[in-house]
Backbone:
């Protein structure tokens, strides 16, 4: 087992602004508080020391494992025609989802680009596969270039970011010892790793229906985490794919592309439709989260913005701890009387 060295908060914060989520667990959150998180420069605020000790996450013992691919991707069958493609060996712990209808399948997000996720999808289904991106951050779009058909939300800022791509040097931080705890896939060369400019073949708006044949996904526009973020509702199977609007870890509510007002309004939309889904299929850490967490997210943001809640602080950021998730925000958006 490789033991990563802790990243400094500025390094980690910069990484997050270009590719969002990272793992979290109660031990990690408690470690932050125990190690004096209120002091400036706390290196564990974003990336807890020894973050990899959370593995294996208990949720995966309850799921049906299909197999391990390329020594990198773990695949779990969540329900008929619904697969979680999990990347547990890197700090982001990205999760993509293969969703099958009767005539075609979609891959919801494409991970961080390490390994060949297209080969995994093609091993799981005989149906034609296209991509649907929940948002524009690197750890969701990096494998999309392998597919001819890509669907994304019609948002100017999001599309501009996709069109920029990412050069090799900007990605090297994600394959350092700080980010990895197991070897990279055999034959995959990080020195050639790039994200080519992406130009989606289909743009969708709020309320659009993605028809897979006998199964549909409804687009729910949920900006806040990023300008182009959307969730996907599989109403017939009572599943909600949230991308990074929610995942059981530290929700990143800071950075240049975050809008807290939008984040809260988007969450309120999902609360209004809570009777339509039972499970959250999130973009990181855990693919099978009970839906009752969504109202708590809204309540947590209200607590923070009114000066309440327990937090650790460092280098202008605060990490607030709640049941089942944390929230990272800039200290200057809330009063200092909290905590």
Residues:
């Amino acid at each position: 087992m490789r033991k990563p060295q802790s990243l400094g908060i500025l390094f980690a914060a910069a990484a997050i602004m270009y590719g969002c989520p990272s793992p979290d667990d109660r031990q990690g959150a408690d470690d932050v508080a125990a190690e004096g998180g209120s002091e400036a420069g706390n290196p564990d605020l974003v990336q807890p020391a020894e973050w990899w000790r959370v593995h294996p996450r208990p949720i995966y013992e309850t799921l049906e494992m299909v197999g391990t691919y390329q020594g990198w991707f773990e695949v779990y069958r969540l329900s008929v025609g619904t697969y979680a493609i999990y990347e547990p060996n890197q700090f982001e712990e990205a999760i993509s989802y293969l969703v099958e209808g009767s005539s075609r399948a979609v891959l919801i997000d494409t991970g961080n680009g390490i390994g060949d996720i297209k080969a995994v999808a093609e091993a799981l289904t005989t149906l034609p596969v296209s991509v649907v991106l929940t948002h524009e951050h690197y750890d969701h779009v990096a494998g999309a270039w392998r597919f001819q058909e890509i669907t994304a939300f019609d948002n100017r800022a999001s599309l501009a970011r996709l069109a920029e791509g990412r050069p090799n040097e900007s990605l090297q931080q994600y394959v350092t010892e700080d980010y990895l705890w197991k070897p990279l896939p055999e034959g995959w060369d990080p020195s050639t790793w790039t994200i080519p400019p992406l130009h989606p073949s289909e743009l969708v708006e709020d309320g659009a229906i993605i028809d897979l044949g006998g199964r549909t996904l409804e687009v729910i526009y949920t900006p806040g985490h990023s300008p182009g973020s959307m969730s996907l509702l599989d109403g017939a199977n009572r599943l909600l794919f949230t991308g990074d609007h929610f995942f059981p870890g530290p929700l990143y509510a800071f950075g240049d592309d975050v809008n807290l007002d939008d984040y809260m309004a988007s969450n309120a939309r999902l609360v209004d439709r809570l009777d339509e889904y039972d499970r959250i299929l999130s973009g990181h850490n855990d693919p099978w989260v009970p839906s009752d967490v969504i109202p708590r997210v809204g309540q947590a943001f209200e607590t923070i913005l009114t000066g309440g809640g327990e937090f650790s602080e460092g280098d202008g950021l605060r990490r607030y701890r709640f049941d089942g998730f944390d929230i990272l925000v800039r200290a200057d958006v809330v009063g200092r009387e909290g905590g």
Remarks:
- The chain has seven helices and 18 strands.
- Residues 68 and 74 are 5 Å apart (CA to CA).
- The mean pLDDT is 88.
- The longest strand covers residues 73-79.
